[in-house]
Amino acid sequence: MTGRTKVAVIGSGNIGTDLMIKVLRLSETLELAAMVGIDPNSDGLARAARLGVPTTAEGVDGLIAMPGFAEIAIVFDATSAPAHHANAAALAPYGKRLIDLTPAAIGPMVVPAVNLDDHLAAGNVNMVTCGGQATIPIVAALAAVVPVPYAEIVASIASRSAGPGTRANIDEFTETTSRAIVEVGGAGRGKAIIVLNPAEPPLIMRDTVLALVNAPDPVAQEAIRTAVAEMVERVAAYVPGYRLKQQVQLIAVDGRDYATLTGEPVTHQVSVLLEVEGAAHYLPAYAGNLDIMTSAALRMAEALAGSTQARKVSA
């Protein structure tokens, strides 16, 4: 590799600002070439300017008009689902790689611990949701060892860590995460719930995975516990605050009670309780929902940058 891959961040709110700081502090392969917003008085744009990052308050049109736009290879979109549709359309003629941190899900959904390498050629990849990034790895770990006809996740985040973009995307959160539980996680059916917890002081992000599985013998049950533990380590490699809150629980159930829900035999309900503590790059440590999204997006961008450089070298 020669030089760093230039990237831009659209969205100067909580997620975009946290992502900006991560790129500047943590990445050895990415160079932040632009911070884009629509509010000239936003804290994110002010911080970017103080850090020497080129800024525009004219949205995606302002980004396209910036002198260094042609050199930018990857664009992060940390706005909202409706805004991403407009931003993707505006950027389409320019051949940029897009990493979508909204629930718009125009392109394939990526959870780095599960399918990082599957979509490196895609022009627009979607990072699902904060709850999806936290829980889908667990669903995928279960599905790798036993059938998972049904999985349900509950993401509880501090109300203070939910900015306007998050609040505007509640419906899209449930729809996109539910779909990703099936398409990425491998469950037969999926359901997602998000809770904005108003508790004071704010609580750290908590996530619960409830799955109905067919694990009739001790060997299968031990395989479940091992797979979950290994997956937690894999996610924690790029989200250091990601951890199990308690031991994995398996409760025997009568499969006949769930026949209409699963459509196939189940023997146990698996309960996995997780906690995600943020790195406090921008908001305090309770904002694990920000940290896991921006950490996953950074991991994806570095993989895309490496893939692009590898293709250039081979050519």
Automatic annotation (TrEMBL):
Q: Which CDD domains match?
A: ALDH_C
Q: What class of enzyme is it?
A: oxidoreductase
Q: Fetch the Gene3D superfamilies from UniProt.
A: Dihydrodipicolinate Reductase, domain 2, NAD(P)-binding Rossmann-like Domain
The yes or no answer to whether the keyword Oxidoreductase is present is yes
Q: Keywords, A to Z?
A: Aromatic hydrocarbons catabolism, NAD, Oxidoreductase
Q: Which NCBIfam families match?
A: ac_ald_DH_ac, PRK08300.1
Q: Give the classification, highest ranks.
A: Bacteria, Bacillati, Actinomycetota, Actinomycetes, Propionibacteriales
Residue positions binding NAD(+): 12-15, 161-169, 289
Annotated signal peptide:
none
| Coiled-coil regions, chain positions | none
Q: Where is the Semialdehyde dehydrogenase NAD-binding domain?
A: 6-122
Q: What is its EC number?
A: 1.2.1.10
Name of the protein this chain belongs to? Acetaldehyde dehydrogenase
State one molecular function term (GO): acetaldehyde dehydrogenase (acetylating) activity
Q: Which residues form the active site?
A: 130
Q: So what family is this one in?
A: Belongs to the acetaldehyde dehydrogenase family.
Name the catalysed reactions: acetaldehyde + NAD(+) + CoA = acetyl-CoA + NADH + H(+)
UniProt source species: Kribbella antibiotica
Is the Calcium keyword given for this protein? Answer: no
